[in-house]
C-alpha cells in the first residue's frame, strides 16, 4: 500500500531547507539546478520561491546564444541537445529558433505503446 506524500513542497521540505533554497536562489543559483539538487520539478520550486516572496528571474536568451543555437540546430543538433547545452526549457529553445527564422525539422513519430 503506497504511503501518503504531501504535495506542497513547503510541507515536504523543512523550513531550513526552504530557507537554504531561497538563499541560494537569491545568490544567483538557477531554479533548474536547485530543483535538480532537491529532486523536485522546476515549476514546483519556482512556486515555492514565489510563496516565499522571492522575485523570480526569467532567463533571457541573448542574441549571441540565439545565433549559436540556430547555427548548431542547422548543423544537426537536436532540440534536446540544445536544451541541455544552454540550460533552457524546450519552449525557450523553440521560441528562440523561431525568432531567429529557423524552420524546425519534423519530429519523429511516436511509438505505439503495447
Summarize the structure in words.
The protein has 2 domains: 9-51; 63-99. It is 56% helix and 0% strand. The chain has 7 helices and no strands. The mean pLDDT is 87.
Layout of secondary structure:
Layout: H1 9-12, H2 15-26, H3 31-38, H4 42-51, H5 63-74, H6 79-86, H7 90-99
The level of helicity is 55-70%
Distance between the termini: 26 Å
Low-confidence stretches: none
Cα-atom radius of gyration: 18 Å
Oligomer: single chain
Query: The biggest beta sheet, please?
Result: none
The percent range for strand residues is under 5%
Strand/helix succession: HHHHHHH
Total strands: the figure is: 0
Q: What's the structural domain tally?
A: 2
Which structural class fits the helix and strand makeup? mainly alpha
* Total helical elements: 7
Mean pLDDT across all amino acids? 87
Write a concise keyword list for the protein shown above.
single chain, 114 residues, mainly alpha, globular
Question: Quick summary of this structure?
Answer:
The protein is mainly alpha-helical and 114 residues long. Helix 3 packs across helix 4, helix 5 crosses helix 7 and helix 6 packs across helix 7. The longest helix is centred in the N-terminal third of the chain and has 12 residues.
